[in-house]
Amino acid sequence: MVLEINGVTKVFKGKGKSKLIANDNISLTMKEGEIVGLLGQNGAGKTTLVNQIVGLVTPDQGEIRLFGKSVTDDRVYARSICSVQPQSQVPLGFLTPRQAVSIIGKMRAGKNYNPKRLDMLFEALDMGKWADKEGEKLSGGARRLTAFCMAVIAPGKLVILDEPTNDVDPVRRRYLWDVIRNLTDNGTSVILVTHNVLEAEKAVDRVAIINQGKILTQGTPSEVKRSVSNQMRIELNLLEKMEERYIPEWAISYHQSGSRLIIKMNTENVTNAVAWAGEQVELGTVMDYSLTPTTIEDAYIELTSNKVVVSS
Ligand SMILES: Nc1ncnc2c1ncn2[C@@H]1O[C@H](COP(=O)(O)OP(=O)(O)OP(=O)(O)O)[C@@H](O)[C@H]1O
């Protein structure tokens, strides 16, 4: 087993005398070559968990083992096994992406550093035009991709990526997912920390949904979806906010965010839903709509959001 997390709890001091339970009895395991998505809202406790895996923070209770070795007993080993792309941008200063990535590659791999890997990564991510530009002149997306390359130029057996696609354009996001998937070909395991549930669904083997420090559910994307399955969703692009009283009675639940309204229904109500959505288009309240089976995002919203309204 690459990673075994057993009953990990981490409590921080809150305001005054209060306590903040950042991780609450978390258990999770990972096998070689697996990509596990750690999904959760802001403040859910994802980074606290990652910091404990790499030995930067010590659990108050429970234990974390990497390849059978306790992280708290051997933090140096933990850091040699793990490569991390942090959520915050890496300050590159005057260094170019090529310089920054090759420095890290040489530090991590020593004599085994292979400069061809840098060329392969830059090519795969279409980074050629930025490779020799000073870091501080680069866009946020180019810096994010540079930080990704720094994490994977000489990857440890466990690569931890914290929001790697933030600021990255949609085309290069696709390239990035391909590179992440290729990492696992030689047995590297990947923890992907993200808010972007839909993207994660395509990239991961398993997901763990974390909320208020607890893992609410974990399993393959299909297993997690099954908690809301046998349902369909209609997604509407609203031209004006829809008041609750206009949500149709066949809705099992709905979620409205900006101009996006997602309504879930049982399959027998699909015809009603399409007819209703068509009427809304004619009335001018909805620009367009699409009907799909429920996604992992639906499960995520249902499990973590306080704003889901479930009809009686
Ligand atoms: N060193 C610390 N001292 C006190 N509280 C902390 C500390 N680190 C984290 N926290 C708190 O623990 C909780 C979990 O934080 P954490 O950074 O792990 O969440 P997260 O899921 O990574 O969030 P985000 O997606 O916003 O990065 C938050 O309420 C945070 O304020």
From TrEMBL:
<dbReference type="GO" id="GO:0005524">
    <property type="term" value="F:ATP binding"/>
</dbReference>
<keyword id="KW-0067">ATP-binding</keyword>
<keyword id="KW-0547">Nucleotide-binding</keyword>
<keyword id="KW-0813">Transport</keyword>
<dbReference type="GO" id="GO:0016887">
    <property type="term" value="F:ATP hydrolysis activity"/>
</dbReference>
<dbReference type="Pfam" id="PF00005">
    <property type="entry name" value="ABC_tran"/>
</dbReference>
<feature type="domain" description="ABC transporter">
    <location>
        <begin position="3"/>
        <end position="237"/>
    </location>
</feature>
<dbReference type="InterPro" id="IPR027417">
    <property type="entry name" value="P-loop_NTPase"/>
</dbReference>
<dbReference type="InterPro" id="IPR003593">
    <property type="entry name" value="AAA+_ATPase"/>
</dbReference>
<protein>
    <submittedName>
        <fullName>ABC transporter ATP-binding protein</fullName>
    </submittedName>
</protein>
<dbReference type="InterPro" id="IPR003439">
    <property type="entry name" value="ABC_transporter-like_ATP-bd"/>
</dbReference>
<dbReference type="InterPro" id="IPR050763">
    <property type="entry name" value="ABC_transporter_ATP-binding"/>
</dbReference>
